[in-house]
Amino acid sequence: MIRHIVMWDVNGTTAEEKQENIERLRSCFHGLRGRVPGLLHLEVGVDVSKIDYACDVVLYSEFESWEALAAYAVHPEHLRVRDALAGVRIARHQVDYEVQSDEPVLSTTL
After folding, report:
1. Which residue of 6, 20, 73, 83 is surrounded by the most CB atoms within 10 Å?
2. Domains delineated in the chain
């Protein structure tokens, strides 16, 4: 399984503008659910910490393979979302990595 994590800072000169852009981003990406082959999971999280170095929004998604992630990058629905969000983001950070099925899951329970 491949994890694809993208974090953005969004445009907005007021808190209201920024929130509108966050909601627009969330709505656009949620619209991809069930439309892209190989996309297993997709969630959008919005930062609540308001720490000055935190990003505004994170996209957490899982794909069945590297090929599925590559196909997502050029999928018409993803390209439609990318175009619809042009100008919304002012910074972008990305991490893609493979998760082995035999890797242990860390628990926070002692």
Report:
1. 6
2. 2-98 (3.30.70.100)
